[in-house]
Structures are given as structure tokens and as C-alpha cells.
UniProtKB/TrEMBL annotation:
InterPro entries: Glyco_trans_4-like_N, Glycosyltransferase_grp1
Name of the gene this protein is made from: mgtA_2
Domain Glycosyltransferase subfamily 4-like N-terminal: from-to ranges: 14-186
Keyword entries, A-Z: Glycosyltransferase, Transferase
Protein name: GDP-mannose-dependent alpha-mannosyltransferase
Gene3D superfamilies assigned to the protein according to its UniProt record, in alphabetical order: Glycogen Phosphorylase B
Organism from which the protein derives: Aquisphaera giovannonii
Pfam families: Glyco_trans_1_4, Glyco_transf_4
Length: 396
């Protein structure tokens, strides 16, 4: 099979979408498929990192499109027109199916082109950009963004969505032909017995009997980190042996550093083995985002042997099982309620350890191979001529 993947985020960017798409490309190449990857150019230094990580593997063709960082979200790059090279590359590659993973300028140009060519095209929904609008003081744009996303995805043969909750939300908004495509985790990489666990804790100044609460992700308003900081500060005030490690970066980092002070360690973005060691250094995972379609970091934390305390919102509520592998706090509850949930596991190590074992056991059932194999089957179904007739009739 020849697959074209169009995305505005990919390695060396560090986020759940880029990791998911990296696993998809890896799976397709291992199955013997040919993959064309069209993505932004992230600059010379970042691209050297990408080359070291195997960009250009046999069977993989990569086209990097000129891009600029978005001013309100510097980690996100906006590809710049003209997109003639991308259109010509698609025509030359002659894909059996085109998968558009993001909906900005590059995704839109690709959608228009492949529909004109009559190529089978599918899409995936990863990010609630309509919900992000209020975090960046452009709440007035939410309706416009929602209408655009619906228009975009309803013009593809299928849209792959990471959680049942997100499918339900999108269905009520008028999205059509939605297919569940959950996320997996590498349980051999993310595990509690990582060889670097003790070294990370020592380097960060944690004592052996400290209870370490972890957060991994972008440190930004859309992740509701102000709420998290308030809850963590309350926990630290009531449990002096608690420490906090935050893996990631973003515009809210200076404010969180000020609010959390000496109890917290900010270590920036981490990848690969180093990231896995930092996960393993924690005892309990805290996640307060309200905008996740899935929340890859939650599954990685579980595989690393941590129970999760999270808000019951988006796809996270489909992964965390209340009282089994973590605790869920209602989205409208104050930070004090979130702090109480964290404290209940800080002061009861026996319960925390039991949940950690359940979290790890659940994560091990979510393998990337099975999940990506299921998606590949969907590709084959979308290629059939009758699939195109149905999609074109519904998405005209």
C-alpha cells in the first residue's frame, strides 16, 4: 500500500499527536508499505535531530514545507503557501490513500488537491482547537473554528477519533463518519522499573521517602495548568514530604515556577529513554486538562506504574477508571477537590500501589501494534470504490 500522510506536527516536535503519527509511520513501514510524509520544516537545528532519528528510512519519502512558528503557540508551525511542491509530490507518489492529520493551511491545500484528483482521502481529529480559543482570548472565534473543522472532516471518507467521548461530542456537532482510533503505549519503554529512575530522583534532590507527583505535557493555559498549580500548592502545604516534577515547557512555566517554588522541579521537554526515566521517577500522576481528545501522557503514566488523578473531561475519562487505576474529579469542581483526591493517595501508599499495579496492567493491553493494525485495515476499506461513492454523496 502507498500512503501519503499530511501533518502540521511531527517529530522532532514533542506532543501526543507527533508521537502517535510517528508510531503510525513505523507500523506501516514494518508492514512493507510505502509512506510519503508531508510536514513542516522546523528549522536547521530541529531537522538535524530528525535526521539522526531515522528520517529518510527505506520506504519513507519526506517532503518538508516552509513554515513559521505561530505567535501564540510557538511550538506549532504554520506551513506557508504556495503548496505547489506538495501537490506535485502527491501526484508523483500516486498514493492509494491520503491521510490528512491536521486541518491548517497544509491540510486544507492537500484536501482540496486530492479531492480534485479523486484520491481516497481520510482524516483524523486530534485537537480541540475550538476549545483552545477561550484560553487565548479569542473566544469569539469558537463557532467559526467549529464550523470549519466540521466542513473539513465531513469532506473525507472517514475521520479517525481517539476516544468514545470525543466521538460523542463531535457527533452532536454534526461531524459524520467517525471511527474510533484509540492510542497505544510502548510498555517496554514506559515501565516503573526503569534503570534511570533512581538517578533522576537523586539529580532532582528527591529523598527516597518523598512522594513525587508528576505532570507531563505543555505548560500552557489550554492545559488548565493554573488550576493544577493551585491544587499542587494546597497538597504541598498539607503534606511536606510531597515533591513535584513537571516535564514539558510553555508560556505558563514562569508563573508556575513562581507559584510552586521549591517543591517543584521543571525539567523541560524530554524524549525517548530520558522521558521514560522521568516518568518512572514519579509516584502519582496529576492531569487537569479539559481539552484532551485522548491524553497520550495519561496512558504513558499508567504504563510507568502511576495511578492518575485527572478531571473527568474529554478522552481522559475513557482511560481513567475511577477507583481502579486512578481518581476522577468533576470538571466543575474547585482545585481544593483535586487536591483532596491527590492527598488521598499520598497518605495511603497501599491504595496508591494497588492502583499503580492496575494502571500498569491496563496500559499493557493497549498495544500500538494492534491499534495501528486496525487503522491500516480501515485504510484498505476506504480505498474500495464503493467507499468513495458513499463519502462523496455525504460530503459534497
Amino acid at each position: 500500500m502507498r500512503v501519503t500522510l499530511v501533518t502540521e506536527t511531527y517529530f522532532p516536535q514533542v506532543n501526543g499527536v507527533s508521537r502517535t503519527l510517528g508510531e503510525l509511520v513505523k507500523h506501516l513501514l514494518e508492514r512493507g508499505d510505502e509512506v510519503q510524509l508531508i510536514r513542516p520544516n522546523y528549522g536547521a537545528e530541529a531537522e538535524r535531530t530528525a535526521d539522526r532519528e531515522g528520517d529518510g528510512t527505506d520506504g519513507l519519502r519526506v517532503l518538508r514545507v516552509k513554515s513559521i512558528p505561530m505567535p501564540f503557540y510557538m511550538e506549532l508551525f504554520l506551513p506557508l503557501p504556495p503548496f505547489g511542491p506538495a501537490r506535485r509530490a502527491i501526484d508523483e507518489f500516486r498514493p492509494d490513500v491520503v491521510h490528512i492529520a491536521t486541518e491548517a493551511t497544509l491540510g486544507l491545500a492537500a484536501l482540496r488537491h486530492v479531492r480534485r484528483r479523486g484520491l481516497p482521502v481520510v482524516s483524523s481529529f486530534h485537537t480541540n482547537f475550538d476549545q483552545y480559543s477561550r484560553h487565548y482570548r479569542v473566544g469569539w472565534s469558537k463557532g467559526i473554528v467549529c464550523r470549519y473543522l466540521r466542513w473539513f472532516h465531513n469532506r473525507t471518507r472517514e475521520t479517525y477519533v481517539p476516544s468514545p467521548t470525543t466521538i460523542g461530542e463531535l457527533t452532536t456537532m454534526g461531524f459524520e463518519r467517525l471511527v474510533l482510533w484509540p492510542r497505544g503505549v510502548d510498555g517496554t519503554l514506559f515501565r516503573p522499573d526503569r534503570p534511570g529512575r533512581a538517578a533522576v530522583r537523586d539529580a532532582l534532590g528527591f529523598a527516597p521517602d518523598d512522594t513525587v507527583i508528576s505532570y507531563v505535557g505543555r505548560i500552557a493555559p489550554e492545559k488548565n495548568v493554573g488550576y493544577l498549580a493551585e491544587a499542587l500548592a494546597q497538597v504541598a502545604a498539607r503534606a511536606p514530604g510531597v515533591k513535584v516534577i513537571l516535564v514539558g515547557d510553555g508560556p505558563s512555566r514562569p508563573e508556575l515556577e513562581r507559584r510552586l517554588g521549591p517543591i517543584a522541579r521543571f525539567v523541560g521537554y524530554r524524549t525517548g529513554e530520558d522521558l521514560a526515566d522521568h516518568y518512572a521517577a514519579g509516584d502519582l500522576f496529576a492531569f487537569s486538562s479539559l481539552t484532551e481528545t485522548f491524553g497520550n501522557v495519561v496512558l504513558e503514566a499508567m504504563a510507568s506504574g502511576m495511578p492518575v488523578v485527572a478531571l473527568r473531561a474529554g478522552g481522559v475519562g475513557d482511560t481513567v477508571r475511577e477507583g481502579v487505576n486512578g481518581l476522577l474529579v468533576e470538571a466543575g469542581d474547585p482545585p481544593s477537590r483535586f487536591a483532596e483526591a491527590l492527598l488521598s493517595l499520598v497518605i495511603d501508599p497501599g491504595r496508591r500501589v494497588a492502583m499503580a499495579h492496575a494502571a500498569r496492567a491496563f496500559a499493557l493491553t493497549q498495544t500500538w501494534d494492534a491499534i495501528m493494525g486496525g487503522l491500516r485495515d480501515r485504510y484498505e476499506a476506504a480505498i474500495r470504490p464503493e467507499a468513495g461513492v458513499v463519502a462523496l454523496a455525504a460530503g459534497r
